[in-house]
Amino acid sequence: MPDELRALRRQLGFDYGKFDFVMHEGRAVLLDANKTPGRARNLSSFIAAGNANLADGFEGLIRQVK
Questions:
Q1: Other CB atoms within 10 Å distance of the CB of residue 26
Q2: Through-space distance between the first and last CA atoms of the chain, rounded to whole angstroms
Q3: Are 17 and 35 in contact (CB under 8 A)?
Q4: Integer angstrom CA distances of residue 22 from 5, 19, 43, 51
Q5: Sorting pLDDT into bands at 50, 70 and 90, what band is 21?
Q6: Per residue in 31-46, pLDDT tens?
Q7: Strand, coil or helix: what is 12?
Q8: Is this structure's pTM higher than 0.90?
Q9: Is 32:19 a contact under the CB 8 Å cutoff?
Q10: Alpha carbons 9 and 26: distance in angstroms, whole number
């Protein structure tokens, strides 16, 4: 990805998504930018909550086996 689009990505707050662009006379021209739909705004807390759920479920299974 061209450096100028990397800078634009940071300005727009994209950590993951898709940029459609063309190169014209040596410069990148952004046509469309899409963040990934359905992505949690704070992905790390979302993953941590899911991990806690998995850990609780796993612990429950272990207690049933004992």
A1: 6
A2: 54
A3: yes
A4: 11, 10, 30, 41
A5: very high
A6: 988 887 665 567 677 7
A7: helix
A8: no
A9: yes
A10: 19
